[in-house]
Design goal:
- The structure is a homotetramer.
- By secondary structure, the first copy, chain A, is an alpha/beta fold.
- Chain A folds into two domains: 305 residues, Zn peptidases (Aminopeptidase, 3-Layer(aba) Sandwich); 112 residues, Alpha-Beta Plaits, CATH 3.30.70.360.
- Chain A is built from twelve helices and 14 strands.
- The first copy, chain A, has an eight-stranded mixed beta sheet with strand order 1-2-4-3-5-14-6-12. The first copy, chain A, has a four-stranded antiparallel beta sheet with strand order 9-10-8-11.
- In chain A, helix 2 runs parallel beside helix 6.
- The radius of gyration of chain A is 23 Å and the shape is globular.
- Chains A and B meet through strand 8, helix 8, strand 9 and strand 10 of A and strand 8, helix 8, strand 9 and strand 10 of B.
- Strand 9 of chain A pairs antiparallel with strand 9 of chain B.
- Chains A, B, C, D: Keywords: Hydrolase, Manganese, Metal-binding.
């Protein structure tokens, strides 16, 4: 494929929408993106361990799941060289255009899909227009298909312009499980970035609105806790059990009761639980998945210490062992206002943009903040850009869809802002 | 197959051990038993709806599971006529020898296996002697293989003797889920039984010991409760959720705290729980499986009313709907001492029997009590006989095995007792 | 007493500090204030039901407590006419200066003390200077003594000036239990107020600072819930009990777990619990005192509906009856910025004022908001003024004290602001 | 007072009924009993530390309470020498008749009353007949007044007979709090007892029935647990609290959920709770009183280990310190059947006795078991005798009363049994 074969951005978004893959299983997606950035003509394309530090990954599914999607990607025509590089779930890539010694600018987009079943009826655009998900039960229901189209489109646009500096596009896997941001940082390509832009469509902002610098991310940590006790016959020897289901229930009650914090808003939720085998056996094992969020990183740490205490003592109270594993994590970082101003400037000159906001509350969690944090640690600055798009229903719901004109808006705004940073 | 082709009881037990089937999936087992009782030469053999009132079944697995085992039974050579009759899970049979107008005597044995993986090493007799389970993950780990051998053996023995009356052998399915006793009663063949014997091997009594009348069964009711609330984003809108996982935890805490009862021993256990999807979603749905037991039927009713109250209010407290389904049930019935005396008499004359106990505590639950209860309701009497057997590990554990000499002891004792009742 | 006998404001504060009285027991305090405002020469002085609608009171103590303080007030020399008027706890007064048809301006100060034992050592100013509390275990530990001094001082100051309009000073009882604001409104004297000033000293602001318009009050509702079950002997008949202590525990667990709200900050606390008589009796009765707070009135309503659900179902789960009583309440109301601007203007011209803030977060609850709410409902405007004072320890702690220079500052600032409103 | 002044047993019971005293406050009662046994003419009378090892006492009230009752006893005419000996709450006495080297026989009766308010109406015999409690809120509502009458009466009867041996009557304090049995043992006078009789009236057995040997006592341990956390303002700084009320609620939920035990019946109850000060303060301190009971001593130990674990981890979960104190305790001991046979023999010859039962279930707890246990440890034997009495309502309720004819029956039966042991 050459640059001339590159599909237009909307077509590209539709092709990516058709083959959604869950977090850490973006095997075909990575292969396809490698094709596309090669067609653009990048100078470097990092994949596998070169893009993702596998040891730092969170929320990686079981090997059987990884294998199933890896095999499916092969059937779907993914490239052998890419499949070899990303085997075991080191998906994602970093595409680089290098043009001299000028500033290093980054653009981060995310690439994974969700376990949502896409509707089949004609009211749903992708179904009506023939690009509904080919993978039953998996769907791009958050707009990452649009993000990838913006990423490739912006890269292609800038490849045709002159600048002095380096552009790195980070196609990050596993955002939905807050598991890909940290390993992408650990692979090292973020280290020398001077200005980083991250982009998300929608979030309730209509087509034509651009938020130049999102704020009020929530720091988050998601964990899986396993209580291991001892089973016993519930009729014949109830006293011999060490009851993991009771440890779990005590933990759930008390985790939700962790006190509010005056210094920042907080959230605690146990969202999944699974325990025991049958009604006549004292449950030997119970697993919960939980998360804490906070408006500041120190408050998250304080809440997490409370979580630790509840888990430890709920286990101890029922004679159970406890093991806890982090399955998703992202810090709180705000957008830099200077860089947001650059986006404002760029957005103002885009004709399809009707309203530009310097700042806007995000109110959720995102692991782009890992990249933003790393950039700040090295003296650079970052901003998280929201490109408004009319969406018929909320993110993560089956009827979610994007207004495709926002893809072009995103490309124009980001091209403008990145160009301004590359050629100040 | 004719009477001459009948395998001896121990060989029969081994062949049945090799093909264990879970509750309500005893398709091949039923077919095989039909073969055997036909070889004995019974006068009637009831299968399907004629043996089991399907509407009264409890603990029936999903259709997919039933279909899988039905298909497997066909592959294993089960008879088409039997497979047709028991399709959808009306397994089990009632075999009848009719010899005049004398008393009607019943013998009840159970036929289902357990979800236990059988060991492969040579220390485990069935593995060493080539009759380990052919079905991975399923095992006769409670002795029902021996029970069937005793049932067929006793039937064959009595078929060769003269008596005036009727012998009915009830090969009952789904005892392990306490789901087969009631539907077997509802099918009607228990109604005219004057004397009923039920039999179980082991329970800690060694080979050579016989307990003529077990007592202190626990009445039991097992239920599945489903809490349905409403999901919400745990970060963005926690207030919109109606949290099923919290309803579940509150229920678990309070069910285990249901007070003891001065009139009888009681048990309460929540043994299984499953709820929610992911840490960042307020859980919409939670399911628990629980049971209550009591030393008397009225106390069980009292405890179950407490269970109802806890479930209802745990749901209401968190704005959830509740649905509750009974998945297993058995009343408390004690053995009649007059009939137990008959067993004592018979056992005393069996040379391999070293110790005969008139009574013995059972201390667990059994749905043979449904049959015993029905017999009592119609003026008959029942006794639950325990035939001791040396077993290397507890019932329901992987290393459970029976001392095969107990199979012959069981046949001898029951033949003697039944003959005494048929020809008083 | 005539105007010439009026003590200076600091002396007045000390005399009031010496005789603190708890909420609804401010009998002597009301008598003393009537003396003082009569000395000033007010045109009207409303006491008893004329100042307080007794039916709307919250948090009223037992009759025995009221009687005890009423009697003590008589011993302390309180006036018979006043004692008659306020008998049964209709404490507080409204003092009115009427000078023509101009605007009606209100000033609200609170008058009750706290159940805190005042230190005796010389490090504590009131002890060192001879005006420590004469009532053991009761103390002006929140500055209401200073508020009264400011109220009387401002009234006296304005009585000497010319203006066209009406000044009403509301000496409100029972602020500490959030119980006096509503009944003062219901008595009717707030209805025609065009501009209302409320005042509080301290809150961490140092002497010399004035906050012209406090904001971010938390709406609050405090309740007492009583669970009534049935006692039973814990050894002999545990099943006969309807356990109020368990209902209470379930309520506590689940009240603290009421979910956060995305639209406003919230608080839930069960701060007091009392249940049962002895370890060997199933508890028949349990009482808890709890509160919910929220940053907006609608969110408080939403939280309170959750509270209702938890209480009702915790009771139902354990077969208990429930009764719930509101013991304290205050809405959220913010200061009007136009009126705050008037305070800014006045404060700026006071020489002892070093810093003036137009707005400031309050972050707690106050029932002055009832008066502010009523004024707004009638088309008027309000502002809540904080007069900074150096205080050695936090409000409600034993070592709390005010820097007395702030009393004069408060009088000057409020006199200025009120005069500006009366003579615009 | 001399032997001739001794009131008859029924009159004696009425006089004792009139002046009930709570556990460890039996100051007047002890004085009165000393008078009585001296009138009988005992050889030894041990009081104070000589009868009670004060260090081993449980459930002792606050010093203020002790002082109040001590003073009241003085006003009621108690003897100075006795009051001095029992000051601080070493109430009770051991009265001894020594007649040679024969066997040592003991009789144990208890002497304390209950915090129950006695009815005043004429339907209540003591009110109708002028011996209603003179101490408001305290009542002999369990029959200990009758026990003392039986104790004195039996002593007086035997003092008039000839025997070879020693009779010790143990007037034990503080049975209602299970606090006096152990210290009476520790004082040493039980050590040489060969045969011990304990006696209780009623328990649902009618007048005329005697149970010679009660069984199935429940071992018991009662404890007070205090959780100490840290208070915080519930609105302004909820995160700063270490919430003792939450620790308490978690403990209550989980204590009641301690699993049943297959080896013995068990009981767990939290019967009293008290925590916190006000709704707007995170509670700093919570106290609960709880008990565990079991049908055997080892099972009680097992349950108590569970209790320990729950308390410890409930505290830890909420960052609280925990302190636990035993406030009542009694082991399980059964009556010896040989000694019960002696009672049967004696009872059979009493004309007013209509039914004699060799054994009977007690089903509650009693600290006479401490004395029985000590006797057994030294090679002696014991039996706990129940003397039936018609009682209009249950023990510990306000309308409890005894049929006074049972007092004479008790004296006759015990005199007969003791004499048989003394002169075998």
């Amino acid at each position: 494929m050459t640059s001339e074969d590159l599909p237009d951005a909307i077509d590209l978004r539709r092709r990516l929408h058709e083959y959604p893959e869950p977090s850490w299983c973006e095997f075909r997606t990575t292969s396809r993106l490698v094709d596309l950035v090669e067609a653009v003509g990048v100078d470097e394309c990092h994949v596998g361990e070169d893009a993702i530090d596998s040891a730092a990954r969170l929320g990686v599914p079981d090997e059987a799941v990884l294998d199933e999607w890896h095999e499916k990607a092969a059937e779907r025509g993914a490239r052998d060289d890419v499949l070899d590089a990303v085997e075991g779930g080191t998906t994602g890539l970093v595409a680089v255009l290098e043009r001299g010694d000028g500033p290093v600018v980054g653009l981060r987009v995310d690439i994974d899909a969700l376990p949502v079943a896409e509707p089949t009826d004609a009211d749903h655009e992708p179904a009506a227009n023939g690009f509904r998900s080919a993978e039953e039960g998996v769907m791009h229901a958050c707009g990452h298909d649009a993000h990838m189209a913006i990423g490739v489109g912006t890269l292609a646009e800038l490849a045709n312009r002159e600048f002095d500096g380096t552009l790195k596009v980070f196609f990050q896997p596993a955002e939905e499980v807050l598991g890909g941001g940290c390993p992408m940082v650990e692979a090292g390509h973020v280290d020398d970035v001077d200005s980083l832009f991250a982009v998300h469509v929608g979030f309730g902002y209509p087509t034509g609105t651009v938020v130049a610098g999102a704020e009020e991310f929530l720091a988050i940590r998601q964990r899986r806790a396993t209580f291991t006790g001892e089973s016993a016959h519930a009729g014949a020897a109830p006293q011999d059990g060490r009851n993991a289901i009771r440890a779990m229930a005590t933990a759930v009650e008390n985790l939700h009761g962790i006190p509010r914090h005056a210094d920042a808003l907080t959230r605690v939720n146990v969202g999944r639980a699974e325990a025991g085998r049958a009604s006549n056996v004292v449950a030997e094992r119970a697993v919960i998945e939980l998360e804490a969020r906070a408006g500041t990183n120190p408050v998250l740490e304080a809440i997490d210490r409370r979580v630790d205490g509840v888990l430890e003592h709920a286990a101890g109270m029922h004679g159970c062992e406890l093991s806890v594993e982090t399955i998703g994590r992202a810090p709180r970082v705000d957008s830099d206002s200077a860089l947001a101003a650059v986006v404002c400037e760029a957005a103002t000159s885009v004709s399809a943009v009707e309203e530009v906001r310097r700042r806007g509350a995000f109110g959720a969690s995102e692991d782009a903040t890992y990249l933003m944090d790393a950039v700040a640690a090295n003296g650079g600055q970052s901003t998280y850009v929201v490109v408004g798009t009319d969406h018929p229903s909320g993110h993560h719901t089956p009827r979610f869809d994007v207004d495709e004109t926002s893809v072009d808006i995103g490309i124009e705004v980001l091209t403008g802002a990145i160009e301004a940073e590359l050629s100040p």
